[in-house]
Design brief:
145 residues, mainly alpha, 6 helices
């Protein structure tokens, strides 16, 4: 081993040892983000009886943009629920989607085991399928790109 390589290794070990030694000291007190930041305190939890709790409502902060509501269909016009396409399924409300899954579950044992799971999963699967693909085919693993 030549002298410069050994000197570099010794210097690297010394720097590492100094960094480790500097990191081993502890500082007492509360951590804060900056010199002008006050330490946070956690308020004591309050207890309420289950009957005294009010329902939680969410309101938008002042100045927040409003999102227009999206119209939903409640039924597939002119076609049986089992023949609904992915394009139609995605535009249905949750109740109508559940009806489609229930109709498909009559011929699909896996879907019939937990139809509620398949309501949401079908929406996800239909995003990968051609819009004209029947939902029953997507649930059978066909028509997915």
């Amino acid at each position: 081993m030549d002298y410069t390589l050994a000197a570099r290794m010794v210097a690297g070990i010394a720097v590492t040892a100094a960094a480790v030694a500097a990191c081993s000291t502890t500082v007492d007190g509360n951590p804060v983000a900056g010199p002008d930041t006050q330490a946070l305190s956690t308020p004591a939890p309050t207890t309420q009886s289950p009957t005294a709790q009010s329902p939680t409502t969410r309101t938008a902060p002042p100045g927040a943009p409003t999102v227009p509501s999206v119209p939903t269909r409640t039924a597939t016009p002119g076609s049986p629920a089992a023949d609904t396409t992915c394009d139609e399924y995605i535009n249905l409300d949750e109740t109508a989607q559940r009806e489609v899954i229930t109709a498909v579950a009559a011929d699909n044992q896996l879907v019939s085991l937990n139809p509620e799971l398949w309501v949401t999963l079908t929406s996800a699967l239909c995003t990968f399928a051609e819009p004209s693909t029947p939902v029953r085919d997507v649930l059978a693993g066909q028509g997915i790109r």
